[in-house]
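Blinded run. Sample ID left blank on purpose so nobody reads anything into the name before looking at the predicted structure. Input follows.
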Amino acid sequence: MHDILPIDYKYYEKVLETGKEVAEFYNFQRIETPILEMSELFEKGTGETTDIVQKQMYSLKTRGGDALTLRPEGTPPAVRLYLEHGMFNYPQPVKLWYYGPFFRYEKPQAGRYRQFWQMGLEVIGEKNSIIDAQTIQIYYNILKELKLNNLIVEVNCIGDQLCRPHYRKTLASYLRSKDSNLCADCKRRIKENPLRILDCKDEKCQAVKAHAPQMIDHLCEECKHHFKEVLEYLDEIGLPYRLNPYLVRGLDYYTRTVFEIFQEGKEGQAQTALGGGGRYDYLIKLLGGKETPAMGGSLGVDRVVQAMKEAQITMDNEKKVKVFLAQLGYLGKKKSLKLFEDLRRANIQVGESFDRDSLKSQLKIADKYGAQLTLFLGQKEALEGTVLIRNMETGRQETVKLENAVVEIKKRLKK
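Blinded prediction complete.
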């Protein structure tokens, strides 16, 4: 787990601001779910055979005997919220978005931490293929708004409950014939969940995967038609994508469309996955609701921030200080504190250096800020109830009454 320092936090805030702006344009509403959920939610929803549930969850027992887990992903909590608060009675689809920390016990690597940040979008209650394409488009738009380039979407269709069982059998049969070339985890997965082997990053398994049967050749007519429409929509909006017949994502609840967005590196560099997701048409029923189509995904904020820094995208989030308040002596400090608060209430961004006594050092700071006006409050001004205003560009100085200071400063800032 890692700390986020002020210099980096600007990037995290930028991702949040941009994500919020784009999500709200598409009529998504923000939600917040607890960081702790019942463990059963993920065991049932994410899937007992996934690495998340088997290896990566931070789980605990309460004094009352409840089994709780730090949320490892956002979709099951969003679905729980949808069901628990009767959102199935709302006009459909319900569009939700969230941003926050998630937790997985996994080997740390570049851009991946055990406490990590995600922004997620969920569209619940719509089966039309246009939702698949638009969800992908929204994530792509967020990354483009953040000035990231060389983006490519990888997309695949993994079928549904009608056509996937036959493909699983075909795939399992092929994998059993290559059993000796698989890693220990994947040997176990042949029986439990052979599709997960397609997501394994082990070099031996990658070589086996390269010749495995492809799901796209085993789709039923309905899934074929749905996926064809998704690709036609992506073509229409000019989104750069490529088919990856072995893309399955690591979660059991996905059906039909799955996608990942990568930033292509220079030659020889590994691609960086910045986000991904897919359709999950059976998860709501699995968690106790009626069968309800849904589509969603998430952005890995830590990875997006890393990509922004590597692209040397600078954050100019510093508030522009137009006024600097310089003070001298105890009385000057006392009156400055009140004037500073008056300026804050008037929404005038003001710089100060109350810890400095030297006027020379304070003026250096005013220059660093690039302040338009500098205010001087010393012993004399404090006793007379005045403040000296200096225009830093022209050098012109005027003394005004303290009670009129805010009005006079506003006048000069407009010039």
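Unblinding after everyone has recorded impressions. The chain has a mean pLDDT of 87.
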